[in-house]
Amino acid sequence: MFFQKDIETMSRQEIEEIQLRKLKHQVQYCMDNVPFYHERLTKAGVTADKIKCLSDVQYIPYTTKADIRDNYPYGLFAVPMNKIVRIHASSGTTGKPTVVGYTRHDIDIWSDTVARFCAAVGVNENDIAQISFGYGLFTGALGLHYGLEKLGCAVVPISSGNTKKQAMILKDFGTTVLISTPSYAMYMSEVAHECGISNEELKLRIGLFGSEGCTDALRDKIEKGFGLFSTDNYGMSELQGPGVSGECEYRCGLHIAEDHFLPEIINSETGEVLPRGEKGELVITTLSKEGIPLLRYRTKDITRIHYDTCKCGRTHARMEKVQGRSDDMLKIRGVNVFPSQIESVMANIEGISPHYELILTRKNYTDYLEVRIEINDVNLLENFGSLEAKQKEAVDKLKTVLGIQAKVTLVAPHTIQRYEGKARRIIDKRNEAEA
Amino acid sequence: MTTQQLSIFMENKPGQLVQVTKTLKEAGIDIRAMSLADTKDFGIVRMIVSNTEKAQEAMREAGFMSTITQVMCVAMDDQPGGLSRITELMAEAEVNIDYLYACITVIGKDAYIVMHVDDEKKASKCLEQAGIRMVGNEEIANM
Predict the structure, then answer these.
(1) Shortest Cα distance from A435 to chain B (angstroms)?
(2) Is B45's Cβ below 8 Å from some Cβ in A?
(3) Are β-strands B31-36 and B42-49 bridged in parallel, bridged antiparallel, or unpaired?
């Protein structure tokens, strides 16, 4: 199903014509309305006229999260406040949050791009959509809210938390589409089943999970747990929020809304632009933003982009599921480890729950990784050997995938923290003073 | 004849066993036999209690994972050679004992052991033939 079929299936040539026209406009717009960009572009000698083809984008300097923070709160806004109708901010885990403003037009485009990925998995006006993302400054909830309303769904803005009530409403309201983080969906299915609600009593058919990474293995578990089909979507508040890209029913990459976002892949260490098809850091230039336009924004997300037409008929390029934010990558004893790798190992071990916790410590200048996993199969209690075997299986599988020896601790069910929003599974104590 | 044993998963950290015993105390459960091996990170507490289902429910509510397994509770003479008689019988019948522990309760001349074997039918048969008594849940509840 399509929301804007003519746009989503236009030829590569048409896409690129639109992108070039909009890119020139966006550069001029930034030059005229954002002092920060006026200075940057002038210094780099870039003007809208000098951009003759899409690859000329490489002459524009990158924008980073630090640039947004340095101009906190409104320094990068391109319009006066009387044109701004919404302000969101990303969770500032370190320092000040990054603030973004939307004009009415920005909200309109945002809802379009969200409606596209929702329609792409079959969501339609008959659906009842329960939004279990936390409402607030975070873009996830309201982004999905507006997009789903635009599609004509009945939106249930329950927000996150109060999981027993969530489960009750899933059942009583006949919710057909669930919107949450993958970890919260997992938790909610546990709670629903504990409350005696079976999948047969639910009308759930689609899950739109986002805002944190999710391995295929974890997705399978959630889908089985709830008996639904789910897709992944991608975005970040700096760029607008969800809707930058999203999967279609074939789930072979996330279609980027290329009429609004120009993607590039770069080497995150050298900043060099990589040829099409290579893996690297995703850089996005917004093409339609009025409130806070961003030129070549470094997402820190590692992916690869495919430009061939998808089986679904969409021509918009597909980015691979983000393996991990370059910020999330852990360096353990010099080895690069993405938490998603650990998650995929855990999800493939029988008899344990998908909830886990990573604890990093340092002793005598050496890093130690402890992985805490919950057992949830009572049969393991028949004899001690099977518990030990389970522990060894986890150690061995982690060693195979990560190449490092981890300590695996088996813990009792429900002892690992559950999350109603983004899961925080990593406890890094390496910079704490040694005990 | 077999009897129900409750096996509880426990992490090896301070305060864990207290949680278990306190939960049972609050549920009014008597412990008839108990075994806990020394382990590094985690262990399994096995016990024979006065009311297994009630105990399991209480453990579940307290957040513990547990399972009920069928084991044999064997009465033996409380005198030198009592246990040896049973192990000899098992050896003769070529039955392997997976684990074994003793009951806390002694009634009159009877002591009791709990054991889990690889072939329960064979074990029961040879114990019966030797005139050795096995105890079921009902009797345990009334001990």
Answers:
(1) 18
(2) no
(3) antiparallel
Mean pLDDT of A31-49: 96
Residue A432 above 90 pLDDT? no
- B9:A412 CB<8 A: yes
User: Closest Cα to residue B86, out of B131, B30, B51, B24?
Assistant: B131
Contact between residue A84 and residue A57 where contact means Cβ atoms under 8 Å apart: no
Burial of A387 (0-12, 13-18, 19+ CB in 10 A): buried
Q: Of the candidates B44, B64, B67, which has its C-beta nearest A384's C-beta?
A: B44
CATH topology of domain A330-428: GMP Synthetase; Chain A, domain 3 (3.30.300)
Q: What percent of chain A has pLDDT over 90?
A: 68
- What element of type H or E holds B123? helix B120-129
- Verify whether the Cβ–Cβ distance A381 to B67 is below 8 Å: yes
Rounded to the nearest 10 degrees, how much is the dihedral formed by the CA atoms of B79, B81, B86, B87? 140
Is it the case that residue A93 has pLDDT exceeding 80?
Answer: no
Prior bond to A275 cis, omega within 30? no
Instruction: Collect all residues of chain B within an 8 Å Cβ-Cβ radius of residue A414.
Output: 63
Beta bridge partners of residue A129, listed in sequence order: A155, A177
Search chain A and give the residue with CA nearest B37: A384
- Residues sharing a CB contact under 8 Å with residue B80, sequence separation 6 or more, in sequence order: none
Q: Is the pLDDT of residue A42 over 80?
A: yes
Residues of chain B with Cβ-Cβ distance to A411 below 8 Å are 11, 42
pLDDT one-digit tens code per residue, A217-271: 889 989 998 999 999 999 999 999 999 999 999 999 999 999 999 999 999 989 9
Hey, which residues 374-393 in chain A have their CB within 8 Å of chain B?
375-376, 378-384, 387, 391
Asked if B10 reaches chain A (Cβ–Cβ under 8 Å), the answer is yes
Q: Tell me the domains of chain B and their CATH numbers.
A: 3-69 (3.30.2130.10), 72-141 (3.30.70.260)
Range with the poorest average pLDDT among A162-171, A261-270, A392-401? A392-401
Interface test with A, best of B38, B41, B60, B98 (most A CBs within 10 A): B41
Query: What is the predicted ipTM?
Result: 0.72
B102-133 pLDDT, tens digit per residue, is 988 788 888 999 999 999 999 999 999 999 99
- Give the closest residue to B37 by CA, choosing from B56, B18, B10, B70: B10
Residues B22-38 have a mean pLDDT of 91
Nearest-angstrom CA–CA distance, B143 and A86: 72
Q: What is the pLDDT of residues A336-373, one digit of tens each?
A: 788 878 888 888 888 888 888 999 888 877 888 999 99
**Where, residue-wise, is CATH 3.30.300.30 in chain A?**
330-428
Is the distance from CB of A268 to CB of A281 less than 8 angstroms? yes
List beta partners, residue A235. A242
pLDDT for the residue A435: 44
| CATH of the domain spanning A1-323 | 3.40.50.12780
